[in-house]
# Entry
Amino acid sequence: QQQVKQSPQSLIVQKGGISIINCAYENTAFDYFPWYQQFPGKGPALLIAIRPDVSEKKEGRFTISFNKSAKQFSLHIMDSQPGDSATYFCAASMRGAGSYQLTFGKGTKLSVIP
Amino acid sequence: EAQVTQNPRYLITVTGKKLTVTCSQNMNHEYMSWYRQDPGLGLRQIYYSMNVEVTDKGDVPEGYKVSRKEKRNFPLILESPSPNQTSLYFCASSLASGIPGELFFGEGSRLTVL
# Structure
């Protein structure tokens, strides 16, 4: 079964610190790796994504690091802010018949404390 | 405004009473999908649809039905709800030719089955 394993399940970080969330996958057919951010009472929203031919992608304070040989990728949030408090899901995408199918990790609840 | 709209947002029902959760998108997306979100289990796909009249099972389809008679609508039907279907449900959509792994989610429907 296709799986994406995410850790930790929850994370508490002080304001200004670095938040790191890790994911690992098994199926080498995955060809796109997005991260979703979900605030309480809202649906998940695409935050940042990376292709497997790139080792790092940065957008503002958010960076994805990708290790193809280890089949691992991680989200780093620099200078974490209370407004970053949310649940983060990593995912892996594979082209199917007509669209992309996503497999999600189980999520990490991030709390950034002042 | 581009959006995915789900109704109802909150529902309390009793075991065995049929219910339908509606989902509508105004972005002309071909692909639509239903997920359920449970603590510690993340987002699990129930059913998805590549286009009108084309639907397929996701990871947890038991106890659910869907239909796709129009491109914009993708209702989720619980013919005989049971307490283990108490969950937070999300509808999502995407372009078949869009950014890989970019799903647009609704705001969720919280269902309680007594």
Notes: DSSP finds no helices and eleven strands in chain A. The interface with chain B takes residues 6, 9, 31-34, 36, 41-46, 49, 89, 91, 93, 95, 97-102, 104-107 of chain A (CB under 8 Å).
